[in-house]
Write the structure tokens for this entry.
Amino acid sequence: MNYILSMIVFGAIVWWFAVGPGRKTGEALSPLTRKLVGAVAGGAGILLALRGRWDFAIVLVSLSAWLLGFRLPAMFDPIGRARRSEIHTLALLVWFDLTTGEIEAKIRTGKYAGKWLHKLKPDQIPDLVRELVQTDPQGLNLIAQDLDRRAPGWRQYVQFDAAAGQGPPASVAEMREQEAYEVLGLEPGASEEAIRAAHRALISRFHPDKGGSTYLAAMVNRAKDIALEARRRGA
């Protein structure tokens, strides 16, 4: 009976964190918090399993797996591969891991072309942001929060207006179908449910009220529209 109850609880957890309100709650946690809570839950689950309490162990290990970024099978997760959004700007190629909240960025132009953001030394950050202020304010908007974590105080070296250049440029209106899927983190042919779920996950992060910008929100909304249109054509 305990195993049946634990499976019911497990199913509820899967629904809550995969497609229910818990998805937004989880995305609001910092990467460090997710890792710490995930490790504690996993450790507690293993200890309970060793003591024969598989009912509670299943629940805790499942919670740990989700927090640490292990993906659910596609049958349980309508977003499928929508865990890594890829966005191209004039000077950057930026990836957002929607599971952990972590950001990776590769510099495409300028003095540090070809380098990864996380490999730059602290004294190189001011040079980079000075370039981005002039050439790619949208790209700087994308990585600003990550820079705050990696190199606190970088803003004192530049006159950076977070609202600068936030209006949607022509490149958003001219977004190609492949680019739309990359922004959403989906493969071409993804279901309508997956497209809408990926859009919800991204807009919750990029909306101006969440520290994003109108430019980013416009990009995500346009990607959703293009992907849905492609889905309807293929239906």
Q: What stands out?
A: The beta strands are 84-88, 92-97, 103-107.
